[in-house]
Design brief:
Elements: E1 14-19, H1 25-38, E2 43-48, H2 50-55, H3 78-81, E3 87-91, E4 95-97, H4 101-105, E5 114-116, E6 145-149, H5 160-165, H6 168-172, E7 182-184, E8 191-192, E9 209-211, H7 228-249
Parallel strand pairs: 1-2, 1-3, 5-7, 8-9
Antiparallel strand pairs: 3-6, 4-9, 5-6
Length: about 250
C-alpha cells in the first residue's frame, strides 16, 4: 500500500464521519450524495449514530440542555473510531459539498494534530431554525468540520472516557491541543450560510462546501435560505437516483 506525502493512503478510502441526527436524515443523505458524486478518490462515509454508539458502550454521556444535535459530543470519537490511525474527517450533516474532496485532502499537513476552518463567528440569532438554542462560545463552528490526524500522539487523549466526561469547552475549543497543533483550512470548505460572503470576481470566496449552520431547506422555515436552490437541486438528483436504484432492484 502506498502513501502520499499527506499520509493519505492512495488505495485505502478516505474516511469521512458524518454526524447523524434522526431529525435530519434527509440532510445526511444529500450531504453523502454531494460528496460521493464529486469525489475523484475513494471515500468511506460513516454516519456517527448516537444510539449505535450507546449500544456498543462507546457513548454514555447524558444529553445536556444545550446540545442542539445528537452528535454534539460523539463527533470527538472520530480518532477512536479510526483506531488512532491515519487521517479522517468529521463533518456535521448540514453540509453540501460543491467540490472534489481530493482538493481538501491535498491540503493535509502531517505536522498538525487537526486542521479546520478557523472561523471568527458570533451568530446574531438566539435560536436555530429548528428551535434549538444558538449558543455562543470561542472557536464557534471550528468543530463542525475537522480533519483529524488520528495517529497524532495528542489525539490519543480523545478516549471514550474523555469524550463522555469532559466539558463542552474542553472538547469544542480543542483544549487538549496547543494552538500550533491546529492547522488552518480556507473558509470556503466550511462556508457558513448567512455569515460568509461571496465576493464578486473573487473565485477564492466561492464556497466549496456550504454549511447551513442556521438550518437548511429540509426545514420548512429555511426554504428560502441562501444557497437553498443548490441543496434542493442536489436533493432532486439524489431522489431520482434513489428511485432508479429501487426500480432496478425490483
Amino acid at each position: 500500500m502506498t502513501m502520499s506525502n499527506s499520509g493519505i493512503s492512495e488505495k485505502k478510502p478516505f474516511r469521512i464521519f458524518v454526524g447523524y441526527d434522526s431529525r435530519e436524515d434527509l440532510a445526511y443523505q444529500v450531504c453523502h450524495h454531494s460528496i460521493t458524486k464529486r469525489s475523484s478518490i475513494p471515500v468511506d462515509i460513516i454516519p456517527i449514530v448516537q444510539s449505535d454508539l450507546r449500544k456498543k458502550g462507546l457513548y454514555w454521556r447524558e444529553t445536556g440542555q444545550l446540545e442542539s444535535t445528537e452528535f454534539s459530543f460523539s463527533r470527538f470519537l472520530t480518532p477512536h473510531l479510526s483506531d488512532y490511525q491515519g487521517w479522517a474527517m468529521f463533518i456535521d450533516c448540514d453540509f453540501l459539498y460543491l467540490s472534489d474532496i481530493k482538493e481538501l485532502t491535498d491540503l493535509i499537513d502531517d505536522k498538525y494534530a487537526i486542521m479546520c476552518v478557523q472561523h471568527d463567528y458570533t451568530p446574531k440569532e438566539t435560536s436555530k431554525m429548528d428551535g434549538a438554542v444558538q449558543t455562543v462560545y470561542p472557536r464557534k463552528n471550528w468543530s463542525s468540520m475537522v480533519l483529524y490526524n488520528c495517529g497524532h500522539p495528542k489525539n490519543k487523549t480523545l478516549t471514550p472516557e474523555i469524550v463522555n466526561t469532559q466539558t463542552g469547552a474542553f472538547l469544542h475549543r480543542f483544549q487538549w491541543l496547543e494552538d500550533e497543533d491546529i492547522g488552518s483550512i480556507p473558509f470556503v470548505w466550511n462556508f457558513l450560510e448567512g455569515h460568509n460572503r461571496v465576493v464578486e470576481n473573487d473565485p477564492t470566496t466561492q464556497p466549496k462546501a456550504v454549511h447551513y449552520t442556521r438550518g437548511g431547506p429540509w426545514f420548512d422555515a429555511c426554504k428560502d435560505c441562501e444557497f437553498a436552490d443548490l441543496w434542493l437541486n442536489e436533493l432532486e438528483e439524489y431522489s431520482k437516483e434513489n428511485k432508479k436504484e429501487a426500480d432496478d432492484s425490483n
